[in-house]
Amino acid sequence: MTAMVETDVSTGVQPDEAQAPRRPSLSPSRAADFKTCPLLYRFRTIDRLPERKSLAAVRGTLVHSVLERLYDLPAAQRTVAGALELLEPAWAELREEPGVAELFEAAQGEGAESDVNAPESLQAWLASAGALVERYFTLEDPRRIEPEGREELVEVTLPDGLLLRGYVDRLDVARNGALRVVDYKTGSMPREAFESKALFQMKFYALVLWRTRGVVAAQLKLIYLGDGDALTYAPDEAELLRFERTLLAIWAAIERAVSTGDFRPNKTRLCGWCDHQAVCPEFGGTPPPFPTEAAAAAGWPTLPVVERD
Ligand code: SF4
After folding, report:
1. Pocket of ligand 1 (CB under 6 A)
2. CB-based contact 235:217 (threshold 8 Å)
3. Domain residues of the chain, as ranges?
4. Tens digit of pLDDT for each residue in 31-48?
5. Which three-class secondary structure string do you get for 157-195?
6. Which protein residue has the closest C-alpha to ligand 1 atom 5?
7. 26-249 fold
8. Which atom of ligand 1 is nearest to the CA of 271?
9. Main-chain phi, psi angles of 182, to 5 degrees
10. What is the pLDDT of residues 45-80, one digit of tens each?
11. Ligand 1 closest atom vs CA 40
């Protein structure tokens, strides 16, 4: 396995980022946020502070959309040419989403001074997305795959009431019932030391599927389109049980933080990608008051007492 980039910052925006759950819940990305930095979790999940889109993330969304649509085509038409034809209509839809067209215009206006990844033109940017789509075909033959689900919401409520939810890029079910969970990444394969971090999301899905279907996924597959590599893993029941305990511990820590309003910042090199440095104590900022009303409206049962003037 090759190792080029340890952190994938260019995955597509998952639907669970955009759709508010019915009540407080845990998704793989939000659990990862809390593990990375509790204050980041608060800003994203409870304050819901706005974040900038990035060209890399939008490209990830575009590539995910094309790969999802690819499986709408009859098997024989799932060719490189067929997939590349899906780019334009997928982009036409995506550019209508709030902030997307503006993002591209801003990158063009400011150029490489503000964004080293700023493409020279929309055509160049679309071509880079096309290259990722094309690379997909070096890893799988979509004519031989009939997914059971794409962008599929999986969720389960654990016995203690914790709601786990997330969206699986692709779910394959073999004739013998074996499950394969597939996730596309537009970055490159992480170094070995970061593999377990990458698999966190996949084990999350495997746990939900096990709890809802009673089947342990035979394979978890992360497809890295950046360098044309793939990471596969076969979990077992004992591991998923341990993972469930890990999630319960993370959730207990989140509930404690919500009940006290104490979300500690955790300064790491990932702060470089954080949009909230201006309100982060690690960077001289002051977080806004804890949004008690918004948190109560979102269904958090225990909230910190906020003193009012
Ligand atoms: S800048 Fe770093 S420490 Fe501060 S909220 Fe963001 S991730 Fe956390």
Report:
1. 37, 39-40, 265-267, 270-271, 274, 276-277, 280, 282-283
2. yes
3. 26-249
4. 999 999 999 999 999 999
5. ECCCCCEEEEEEEEEEECCCCCEEEEEEECCCCCCHHHH
6. 40
7. Lambda Exonuclease; Chain A (3.90.320)
8. 2
9. -120, 135
10. 999 999 988 888 999 999 999 999 999 999 999 999
11. 5
